[in-house]
Fold:
Amino acid sequence: MNDEASAIADEQLARARSGERAALAELIRAHQRSVYSLALRMLGTRDLAEDLTQDVFMQLNGNLKSIESSKHLMFWLRKVTTYRAIDHLRRQSRLVMTPLEDEAQFLSTVDGGDPLLQRHLRSLLLGLSPSARAVVLLRYQEDLDLVDIARTLDMPIDTVKSHLKRSLETLRRNTPGAASTRCRDEST
Amino acid sequence: MSEDIESRLRAALRPVEPSEEFSRTLLMRVTADRSSQSNGRSHVRRRFKAPARWFTASVAASLLVAVGIQHHLQGEHERESGLEARRQVIEALRVTSQKLDLAYEAVKSQSTSLADDQTGA
Structure:
């Protein structure tokens, strides 16, 4: 986010904090995509993702006064979403199945690349532990660096690195194209 | 090779938009919740209006109690009237019975004296 965009977002946040409904609506529209995507990839189904997204924004509504800036807001939303998702997954502690109707939604968003491979990667992601899944999502979906991931998940940076390394190895090992690339790389 | 899986992950994990219907519901619910939070004053106003409602309720309750008491007193009065009537009927029966006894005694003594006259004659 550049300085100008950041200033606009800060002003929007200030208006929402002062009780302006239109500003709050803009704020939700601006961040719902990120929150919903995190929730969807963490939990695996659209219904659970929608419930979590709603809970997160309701919680934000109650805590709006404590949000200091637009950057803090993004940090807060990612933190609350991942924490609540991890908490939910630990409570459920079962394998999350991805219904077919949700797959249609996943596929419709793909522009370019191999849709089957992307679907395969997303289903592999659902097999990772909740914390490892959160690390991978914050890294490759939210594009956070390792320090920010560690701050968001309240995790030592070495743990973040280790989760990331092991997750990438698992994904690589179970991805047909990547495995063949590896074999090719190793053979050369 | 690592870049390969990373770029594939980035492509697979592009953020997705929630459905339009969900977005509308979400906006509605959160902004409605906001409105209810910011309506703190109306709660205060309602609290100040509360005694008026209590007054109306207490007047209604008093009226109900008064009607109940009146109904009870009327019942008591009717019961006492009934008892008085019963007492009077019993008294009348007692007096009638006494009169009948006297009449019987008179008839009996008269018939006894007539019989004595006939045997004497």
Observations:
- Residues 61-121 of chain B form one domain.
- Residues 40-49 of chain B have pLDDT under 50 and may be disordered.
- The radius of gyration of chain B is 49 Å.
